[in-house]
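New here. Your pick:
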Amino acid sequence: MEPDVSIETSSVIRIAVLPIGTVPPSLLREYQTMLLRQQTIPQSAISSFYTEHQKSPFAHQPWDTGSLRFKFILGGAPPSPWEDFQSNRKILAVIGICHCPSSPDLDSVIDQFNSACKSYASALVHRCFAFCPGDSQLEDGSKKGGNLKLFPPADTQTQEMHLQTMMQDIAASLLMEFEKWVLKAESAGTILKTPLDSQASLNSEEVLKAKKRRLARSQKTIGDYCLLAGSPVDASAHYATSQELARLTGDYFWFAGALEGGVCALLLDRMGQKDPAMEEEVRYRYNSVIVHYRKSFIQDNAQRVSPLSFELEATLKLARFLCRRELAKEVVELLTSAADGAKSLIDASDRLILFVEIARLYGTIGYQRKAAFFSRQIAQLYLQQENRLAAISAMQVLAMTTKAYRVQSRTSTSEHSLPNKQIGSSHVDGGKMHHHSVVSLFESQWSSLQMVVLREILLSAVRAGDPLAAWSAAARLLRSYYPLITPAGQNGLASALSNSADRLPSGTRCADPSLPFIRLYSFPLHPSQMDIVKRNPEREDWWAGSAPSGPFIYTPFSKGESNDSSKQDLIWVVGEPVQVLVELANPCGFDLRVDSIYLSVHSGNFDAFPVSVNLPTNSSKVITLSGIPTSVGPVTIPGCMVHCFGVVTEHLFKDVDNLLLGATQGLVLSDPFRCCGSAKLRNVSFPNISVVPPLPLLVPHVGGGDGAIILYEGKNQDCVISVACETLKAALPLKPGSEVTIPVTLKAWQLGLVDPDPAAGKSAFGSMMRHFKDGSSPAVVIHYAGSLSSSGDPSTVGSSVPPGRRLVVPLQICVLQGLSFVKARLLSMEIPAHVGENLPMPVHVDSQSTERAIGSESKLDRLVKIDPFRGSWGLRFLELELSNPTDVVFDISVSVQLENPSSADNDSADQDAIEYGYPKTRIDRDCSARVLIPLEHFKLPILDGSFFMKDIQADGPAGSRNSSFSEKNAKAELNASIKNLISRIKVRWQSGRNSSGELNIKDAIQAALQASVMDVLLPDPLTFGFRLVRNGLEPAKLDSTNELNSSVQSSASKGPVLAHEMTPMEVLVRNNTKDLIKMSLSITCRDVAGENCVEGAKATVLWAGILSGITIEIPPLQEIKHSFSLYFLVPGEYTLVAAALIDDANDILRARARTHSPDEPIFCCGPPYNVRVIGTA
C-alpha cells in the first residue's frame, strides 16, 4: 500500500529527486521547495519544447486545458513489484540536485548522477541541476552539455523562472517518451506481469492464458500512459477496450485496474467538477472496482501475495472522494470496512499505511476520537520495531492524539491560549469557568484510557531519547491520575521524572507542571505601619470613608462603609516588600522536595524571592511568597514558578481552581487538598493589583510607661508613644529622620469591649484611639501622607494624587478583671423624723480625693435632703453590690455631684456642681460589699405636666392638640433627666497608692431606676410638715426654703414636749404644682400602738382647734399653715400625720397618682412626724 492515495493518483508522474555530491541540508530543502512549486505543468507551456517525430498516439491531447502532474520523491524510492499493473508507481524521471561550490568537479558529479540513475530502470528522462556554479564551471559545463543543467547564481525569482523552464523541458521530454512507449506497445506488445502470477510455474496452460490476457493488459497500460500524458479521453478509450478483453478472459484483477483508471479519466475529463450525478457514477464504479479486486483473491496465493491491499486502497480512494460531513455516515462505513481488512494484511508496513490513512480521513470529517484510536494503533506498530527512529515516530503520532484524549501538553495549546495578561485577568474576574469548559478539561470516565495514552507517550519518549517529552508525560500522568496509581507506581513516576531531569540542561523549563498542587490562599493585609489608604484631596480628613488596601471585605477600619465585594483593589508601593500566601499540597506517597518556588509575574515590574519547601507524604502547607515591586503599573500574578524534579514549570492558579471546581461537580477524580487533610477554602477573589510610586513611611515604637502595662478595669494610666515621622501640626512637614513624641492617656474602662470616641478620628492628622472587639489591646491610629502634586488645576489633581497611609500602633496593655459589678437595685427606707436628732456629718470630696468634714448645716442637707414639710419618711437608696475577685484590696468611694447655689448666675458648666462623697468602703480579696447611694436630693422641685403628655393624650386627645409640649419633647426631657441623674453618681476605686479608677455603672443604674424613675425624680403634689410654736409665740414668716429648714431644725433642737401642758403646733402644706389645689385637710395623732389617741372613749390627747374636714385652697407653688394645740395626758412616743383629699384633681395629679378612673379620689398623705412627750402620768 501507498500513503496519501486518491482517485487522481493514477495521473501523477513520479520523479526521484537525488542529491548529487555534497549538498547542505538547508540548501537542499530550499531547492526542494522550489521544485514543489512546479508540481503541475500546463501542456500549453511545453509546446516550444515538444517535437512530434511521428503521429502522436494521443489523438485527443488537450493542449489548451490539459496539464502534466508531478510528484517529487526526495531520495527516490525502491521499484515496486506492481509497476506493470499501475504505471504511475514507476519512477519515470530522475532529477539530480548539485551544489557546485560543494562539488567543484563536474565530471565527478556527472559520473555520480549516471551511477544513481542506474537504480531506476523505468526512468525515461534524466536531468542533473547544478546550482551556483562558478565561472570556470559555467564554461566547463556548457561544453559538456547532455543532462547537466547549470543554474547560474541569481536571485530567487530568477532561479525559479529558470527552474520552471527546465521542468517544462522535462515535461515535454516525458510526453515524447510516453508517445514512443505507447507506439511500441501497440506494435510489438510486451509481457506484463504482477506478483499474483509471477511466482507460478509457467506450464503450457498458463503461458497460453497469459497470451490471451496480454492484449487486455497492454490496453490497460496504454491507458495509464495516456493518463500520465494528460489525455483522459484517450485513456478512457483504452480502458474501455481493456475492460472488455479482461472480462472475456476472466482477468478480474486487471479488469478492476482498468475500471479504476476509467474513473480517474472521468474525473480528469470533468476538470474536477463535482455534481450528484457524477458522485453517484463514481460511487457505483468504485464499488464495482472493490468487488472485482475481491474476486481476484486466490486462496493458494494468500500466504505470499494478495490483492487485498488494492481493494483497501480503492476503498480509501472512494472514502477520500466522498469525505465531507454531509456523507460522514457513508465514509465511516467505508473506513470501518477498510479497518476490518487490516487484519488480513501480510505486511506490517501496509497496516501502518492503512491506519495512517484511516486516521487522517476520520480527522477530516471531525471524528477526532476515532482518529485518535487509529493513531494509537499506528504508534503501537512503530513501537514494535524496537528502534529509535520508530520510537520518535510513535511519540509524534501519540502527541497528535493527546488533544482528543484531553491529555495534551500545554506546549501544543500555547499558540491558541490567551495572552499572559489575559491569563492573569481571568483571576480578577473570579477565576470561574463555565460548566462545559470544566467537562472538556476533566472527564473522569476516560481515566484508564488517558493513563494508557500517557504511559505510551512516556515509553516512546524514553526509547526516542527525548528526556523533555518523557518528563512532560510523567508529570501529566502523576499530576492528573495520582489517585489511580499505587504508591509504588507513584515512586516509579518520580524516578522517571528525576532520571529525565538528569539528562536535561540545568534550568530547563517545561510547560506541563508536575507536583505540588498550588492554590492561592490569601493576600495578607499590609503591616500596621504600611497600610495604604486612598486619598481624597478635597477634604481635610482625606482618609474619611476609606478602607484598607487589602482584599478583605471586613476590617476593623471599614465599619459602616460601603464595600464592593465583587472586585477588590490592592495597592503596592515601589520598593516595599509584599507577601502572598499560597497553599501547597502533596497527595502522593513520597516526600516531595521543592527546590524553589516564587511568584510568577508577567507584567515585568516585580522581583520575586524564591523559597524552598519540603512536603511530606500526603501533606499540605501554607507558605508565604514575597517580592518587591520595581516600577509603577498593574501587576499580574497568574501563578507560581516551581523548580521541582530538576525542571522549572509554571503552576497557574486558575488550573487548580478549575480542578477543585471539577472535584465538587464529580468530574475530577479527587481533590488533592482534601486528600491531604486541608480544610475547604473559600474562593479567594483575585484583586486588581496596582503599584504606586514610593510613599513616606513612619516607623513607631512605644517608649516610657511601665513597659508591659497591666491595668484593671476603669484604671487610668499614662503612656508615651514615639513615632518616627508625623503627627503634630507644629512639626509639619516632617523631614526624613525627624521624630515626634506623643503622650497618650489610656483608660481601661471595660474588659474587652470599649466604644471608641467617634470624634477622635476627626482631628487634622487623623490620629485616634481604637479598641478592638476581640478583647485585644487598644491601638493608636494615625493617617499620614506626602505632599500633593503641584498641579495648577485642582480638578486634575485628584486623579493623580498619591495615596496616604494608615499607621496602627497597638498598645500592649493587659486589662484584667477588677471589681466585678454583681447587681443594682432600688431600696425604699421609711425613717420617721425625730425631733432633736442630728444627722451624720457628710464628707466632701474634692478633685484630689482628699477628705474633710463639713460642719456647715447648709451643706448637711445637700447629701440627705430632709424636706421640712415631710421629714425623711420614704427615703430611696440605690444599692450596688460589688465583688472583688482579684488578689488586691479595693477602697470604694461614692460621690455625688450637686448643684452649686453660689454659681446660679454663672454660665460656666464646670462651676455649677459641687461633688460630695460618702465614707469609703473597703472590699478585701475574694469578698463582696454593698454600697448605698441616696436619691432624695435628685427630686425635681416642681411637678410639671410635661412628663405626663402621653397619659394626657390617652385620656383626652382633644386637649393634647392644644398642649404646648409634644410627646417627643417630653420623652427627651425625661431621658435627659435620667441621664443627668446617672451622670452625677460616681463610684471610684483605689488599690494601693498609685492604682485608681472608676467603675462603669451607668447601664446598671439606668436598669435599676427604669421602673421607678417617676418616684425618684418627681415630687409629690403636696408636702406636709409640723412645727412647734414655743411659748405661744407666732413663728416668724419664712420667706425661703432655707430659712424654713433652719427654723424648723432650730426649734426641733430645743428638746421634747412636756405632758400636761398645752402645746401649740402648726401644720404646713406646700403646693408643688403650677395649678391651684382645693383640698380637705385632716390631722391625726397616733400612739406607739398605732391607735388614734384624739378620738374615742380612751383618748389620751386633748386638742384645741380643728383637726379634720379643713377646707383649704393653696395657690401654685405656695404654702399655707394651720394652727392647733395638743394636750398630752400620758408621756410617750406619738406620731402626727397630715392627710388631704384633693377636690377636682386635674390630669397631672391623676397621672402622678396613677389612677385608673377619672372618678377615683386622690388622697395625699404626709410622712409621720414623731413627737416625744416626757413627764409624769
The first strand starts at residue 12 and ends at 20. The mean pLDDT is 77. The chain has 31 helices and 48 strands.
